[in-house]
Amino acid sequence: MISYARQSQEEQPEASLPPVEEHIAPAPRVSVQAFCETVETAAAVQSAGEDRRLGKAHLKIQMGGMAAAIEAYRSAPTPNVIVLESDGRNDLLGGLDQLATVCDAGTRVVVIGRINDVTLYRELVRRGVSDYVLAPVGPIDVVRSICNLFSAPEAKAVGRIIAVVGAKGGVGASTISHNVAWAIARDLAMDAVVADLDLAFGTAGLDYNQDPPQGIADAVFSPDRVDTAFIDRLLSKCTDHLSLLAAPATLDRVYDFGTDAFDAVFDTLRSTMPCIVLDIPHQWSGWTKRALIGADDILIVAAPDLANLRNTKNLFDLLKASRPNDRPPLYCLNQVGVPKRPEIAATEFAKAIESQPVVSIPFEPQIFGSAANNGQMIAEISANHKSIEMFLQIAQRLTGRSETKKQKSSLLSPLIEKLRGK
After folding, report:
1. pLDDT score for 409
2. Which cellular component terms (GO) are annotated to the entry (predicted)?
């Protein structure tokens, strides 16, 4: 068993969802075995095993608590993580001493108990317990505890993946994703990368006025070469904080991918970038579904008509069912107010989805068309356009961050800068 990993948690609400600012990094490919005493805890652990963040972990659940764990490992090697439920104090400490005699070096132990006592906690730490979680626990408590075992405080934070997808083709999801990524980089001062996943018809290169010789296709078709250095060579620099992993946008080959084709790319980007914005094409396949479900946050872009309403509702229902321990996806309405076009009001949209849109972006073909044709963002075309504030609002909701305060300049600023230089 290893030494203490993080501080004990206070009592937590059962089955609570993580707050907006909390980012639980996915666990690596590890083996986890849980020994539970109550069916409620076993059910919570089982639900946790179905969470996307434990998708790579191999989880096995047994009843019997500490006694069953000691007996199981007398003749079998221990996994990477052992989760133990225990009700007692003396039985717990004595059981841990016995478990230590059959436990392999490097195995991490998480204890789920009902005694909230600092003396007990110190004894657990002294015996090498990695985490102590107070019962009753919900699935997200188990997910948090296991995942945080592999997120050392001194390690570089694992990047947050934001997926942007259109409820229907032609609703402007790519435009929204590119401008939101621009706001994340410029206004929130986060290093971000846009990954254009529409390999045949992607527009990120055009929108950012970039024409890199390499891009995401080189990584997808050479999965054995994917590592940090390889991905860095494929990135195209757009601004100081924003990079692009461009799509080839050519038709000289077909782009039929397996379900896990992008996993290596996403995992590598997570290790190098604080924020990854996925521009997901409007298509339904194994890999697009996997990318959406595996993302930390999701934005659905919809136009105010019936087909978009139906598709948004279907996406919401699927994603909420597939991600029970995550916040629901966000959605925004785009191209609102097209002249002479009958539209579904935002209030009716919200009533059907049971969620309010983040923003409703008006239909303004002049400025959006000019930006697209010039390879610029809306903020570069018109610094005070009202949609810029909407993009920032979306960026803040997706990242949980506030706008970075800009220092005010004064008449003495040039002189102060010269003195600093000297």
Report:
1. 46
2. cytoplasmic side of plasma membrane; cytosol
pLDDT in the model for residue 100? 86
**Residues 282, 291: contact at Cβ < 8 Å?**
no
CATH architecture of 30-149: 3-Layer(aba) Sandwich (3.40)
Q: Is residue 375 helix, strand or coil?
A: coil
Q: Provide CATH 3.40.50.300 ranges for the chain.
A: 160-399
* Alpha-carbon span 61 to 112, nearest angstrom: 14
Residues of the chain with CATH 3.40.50.2300: 30-149
pLDDT of residue 18: 61
What pLDDT does residue 299 have?
98
Positions in the chain short of pLDDT 50: 1-15, 154-155, 405-411, 421-422
SS3 141: helix
For the domain 160-399, what is the CATH superfamily, name and number?
A: P-loop containing nucleotide triphosphate hydrolases (3.40.50.300)
Q: What pLDDT, in 10s, does the model give residues 38-55?
A: 999 999 999 999 999 998
Kindly provide the residue ranges of all beta strands, DSSP E only, lying in 114-265, ordered along the sequence.
Answer: 131-134, 160-166, 192-196, 236-237, 242-245
- By DSSP bridging, strand 160-166 and strand 297-302 are parallel
Number of Cβ within a 10 Å radius of residue 359: 22
Q: In a 10 Å sphere around its CB, with 0-12 CB exposed, 13-18 middle and 19+ buried, how is residue 375 labelled?
A: middle
The C-alpha torsion from 115 through 121 and 124 to 130, rounded to 10°, is 100
**Peptide bond preceding 339 in cis form (omega within 30 of 0):** no
